[in-house]
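pinning this so it doesn't scroll away 📌
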Amino acid sequence: MNMQTTIQIRIDSRIKREAKKTLEEIGLDLSSGLKLFLHNIAITQSVPLDLRTANGFTIRQEQEILRETEGAVRNGKRYKDILKMHEEILSSED
């Protein structure tokens, strides 16, 4: 026997409106979308989404970009003249 329960949540009205619109576009109402989300958490024992940073990357992707950037700054070639840098970049493509 399946027992059902009610959940009440407080959420920003803009977020609710945008989520409702998105769910309706794929044929779900807000309640069904939330049920699907919770059901997926229960089945997978994880949060079924990729958390993203403000830049749109996953946390792992952003950490890798930052590591690569730090390495390039620390070990990369430096130029005093942008024209020479541009010239070298174009000549390395041949």
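📌 and the second one:
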Amino acid sequence: MIFARVHGGSSPAIVLLHGFGAFSGVWDAIAADLGTQHRVIAYDLPGHGQSLDWPETPSPKSAARAVLADLETRGVEKAHFVGHSMGGAIATLAALSSPERVASLMLLAPGGFGEEINAPLLRRYGAATSAEELRNCLVAMSTPDFSPPPEAVDALAAMRAQAGQKEMLAKIADAIARDGRQGVIPQDWLATLSIPVTVVWGTEDPMLPFSQTSNLPPFFKLHPVPAAGHMLVEERPGLVADLIRQAIGPA
């Protein structure tokens, strides 16, 4: 089983999938905003937070299966998926494996859309445990003028304090950036998607370069975010919430 925070209660449902090293709480402001009109389900992905107890090192495919299975137990037949970074890859794989279950995709600087990844920074972030280390990593993954809210940093530090969390993140980081490159979702797979797909990407992303947007299928809607880095959920929460509402339409 995986843990989820549920906000609101009205349909259609919105599924929020965080990036590597984070947890469902990073979505709190966005989820509270969207939850006034929608049922919002924010997950702790396998190997993270309250879903730390996982029998093996989770992969994006196994995480996608876990999310879809949990939605089935909740009686959610179809939902709009929003995923950041690793969560974007997981959302995409969920749509590819069960297209009838996914109404739309919004991908925030998604993983799996190009081989290039800042592997040293990824591993550094995965190994960070103190508030100071985490703050420095968040700034490094964003833009130099970004100042992470102290409460967000403290929440991440509390999540990282769990026994076994640091070790699990090290395993996941090794799997994501094996040999310094990340796995890529084949373009011919992406071309089979028949749902609306919006891709949001910071033009100054130091983790996954904005240049990876050049490989997007032509029917994907691209929304560049000028002067933004990789951590769009923290850097531009209001913009992300607005773009989600625009993409899925009225409740």
